[in-house]
Amino acid sequence: MKKVVVIICSIVCLCGLTSPIHSQSVAYNQMYRTIIENGDTVWMVLMRPVYCFPPLKFKNSKEEKYYWRTVRDVKKTLPYAKLVYNALIETYEYIQTLPEKERKAHLKRMEKELFKEYKPVLKTFTYSQAKLLIKLIDRECNQSSFNLIKAFLGGFRANVWQTFGSLFGVSLKKEWEPEGSDKMLERICILVESGQL
């Protein structure tokens, strides 16, 4: 079952992974800047936003362990979701410049390269981390994994992977609900992205 989820995550990641992950944190080009305003030089310091949430109250130690396990999983999978988003934009822009025949050849070549490069990494993911990666890809790309696969690899292959995943409890069509069932995950993602967690 774990292998199936890893394979599905590999297919979703095929939609644009092209470079390795370097860091989980957001890096600014310049931390300090100066601007000249009305003849005066003013120093500016770029700071990350600070998010405030009400403190968490756990009912028992099992719930607290689940929370910290989820934090660990988000820290491991969120960089890959961001990588998919960045690579998706690059790939889409590049593919638009190619003729139809070359697009298909490029996507096939890219698929082989990505399987070779990222399959070993995705195999290390647990079942819950793989499911979380599918959700986080939807969060970052603002599209379900099913739609991404359909756009790049075609409707037939997307339906095959959706059917295959549903046999093991993984839905590629599930959408990100930041105000609903994914409220706690959204909170964790925001805190991880801002460096507060």
Largest sheet: 2 strands, antiparallel
Radius of gyration: 20 Å
H/I helix tally: 7
Low-confidence stretches: 12-29
Give the N-to-C terminal Cα separation. 31 Å
Q: Can you offer a commentary on this structure?
A:
The protein has 197 residues and is mostly helical. It is 60% helix and 6% strand. It is built from 7 helices and 2 strands. The protein has helices spanning 2-13, 61-96, 100-123, 127-141, 145-153, 155-166, 183-193, and strands at 32-37, 40-45. It has a two-stranded antiparallel sheet with strand order 1-2. Helix 5 (145-153) packs antiparallel against helix 6 (155-166). It is flat, with a radius of gyration of 20 Å. The model is unreliable at 12-29 (pLDDT under 50).
Features:
197 residues; flat; mainly alpha; two-stranded antiparallel ribbon; 60% helix
Set down the secondary structure blueprint:
Blueprint: H1 2-13, E1 32-37, E2 40-45, H2 61-96, H3 100-123, H4 127-141, H5 145-153, H6 155-166, H7 183-193
Antiparallel strand pairs: 1-2
Helix pairs in contact: 1-3, 1-4, 1-6, 2-4, 2-7, 5-6
Summarize the entry for a quick read.
It holds the Pfam family DUF4294. This protein is mainly α.
